[in-house]
Amino acid sequence: MVRRHELTDQEWELLAPLIPRAKTGRPLGEDRRVINGMVYKIRTGISWRDLPERYGPWKTVYTRFRRYALTGIFTRALQQMQTRADAAGDIDWLVQIDSTIIRAHQHAAATGRKGGASGRTNRMITPSADPEAD
């Protein structure tokens, strides 16, 4: 049974060969459980410590996630899957950007104040009289 926020059997079949095997002979089932923990964390946004127990110790999942990220395993896996999908004609690389969805932040306005440019801008600061001159 595949739970929500976990890899399907088809997704796992694509990903499993791209995940490095440990020298200790860790069973493939454990790899899937740990990677499902990573997927669950990313898709839900929970903290590592709140990871459900069914994925194993949270620190194990976090440590493996960090190692895979730092060594580029995720990047290489994505590139290999994209290459395979592109060769099969499953990817459409056409990208369009609609400028109506790109908005400036509210503070990017020219004046930033109600009333426009007539607000206090570039105030002149005058030095006070020299107290020792008296």
TrEMBL record:
Annotated region Disordered: where? 109-134
Q: Which InterPro entries does the record cross-reference, listed alphabetically?
A: IS402-like_dom, Transposase_6_like
Superkingdom of the organism of origin: Bacteria
Positions the record marks as coiled coil are: none
Domain Insertion element IS402-like, chain residue ranges per copy: 7-76
This protein is called what? IS5 family transposase
Q: Which organism is it from?
A: Streptomyces tendae
